[in-house]
Amino acid sequence: MTNIKSALFALLAVCFLASCANESDTKAAANAALTETSKAVTPAANAAVDAANKTAEAAAPTGPTTTLEWAATEFDFGTIDQGEAVEHSFTFTNTGAEPLIISNAKGSCGCTVPQWPREPIAPGATASIDVRFDSKGKRNKQNKKVTITANTDPAQSFIFLKGEVNAPEADPAKPAVN
Q1: Paired residues of 101 in beta bridges
Q2: Of 110, 134, 109, 130, which Cα lies nearest the Cα of 118?
Q3: Is 60 exceeded by the pLDDT of residue 33?
Q4: CA diameter of the chain
Q5: 9-158-165-130 Cα dihedral, nearest 10 degrees
Q6: What whole-number distance in Å separates Cα of residue 11 and Cα of residue 34?
Q7: Residue 79, strand partner residues
Q8: What is the C-alpha separation between 164 and 77, in angstroms, rounded?
């Protein structure tokens, strides 16, 4: 049981690191952690991971499906300074004949937080999903994705924020930290 817990913890740590950092910064750490995790994985651990993955997948609402149309699926916030936050509203219209029910909206990273309508959106009605990106600890090009799960076919749709984050210049009086 301890091996299963260790393997799951390592796998979750790798997923967290990979989702919030730049890919090049975490690739080596992720590979090392996965190598260590694979040494401790048992068939029971594989079953536990499979069950966790199935539970983690956002289930689309059952029942009738509808369609939605986005005014725009991408927002370029331009260039901001590290530590600034950006907010944007993505507007959409329920273009189907059934009420639109959004069951989940999830950012690709903890720095990207969506707020979505919890009540059904009537056919023909327009609503929006507000997304906030916090650039604290981020730098360079940023591409963030928000996955929306709803009673649509396909069940998931995506909206994106992108832009550039300027990191503060190093203080010449302070030694560089490696």
Answers
A1: none
A2: 130
A3: no
A4: 64
A5: -100
A6: 7
A7: 164
A8: 8
Distance CA(138)–CA(33), nearest Å, equals: 23
Query: Which residue bears the tokens 């929006």?
Result: 128
**Which of 2-11, 145-154, 165-174 has the highest mean predicted lDDT (pLDDT)?**
145-154
Tokens coding 178: 């490696």
The pLDDT tens digits for 101-127 are: 999 999 998 999 999 999 999 999 999
Task: Return the pLDDT at 167.
Answer: 87
Q: Which of 90, 92, 93, 95 is nearest to 75 (CA)?
A: 90
Cα 106 to the chain's mean position, in Å? 5
Q: Which pTM value belongs to this model?
A: 0.62
DSSP calls for the chain: -HHHHHHHHHHHHHHHHHHHS-HHHHHHHHHHHHHHHHHH--HHHHHHHHHHHHHHSPPPPPS--B-EEES-SEEEEEEEETT-EEEEEEEEEE-SSS-B-EEEEEESSTTEEEE---SPBPTT-EEEEEEEEE-TT--EEEEEEEEEEESBSSSEEEEEEEEEEEPPPPPTTSPPP-
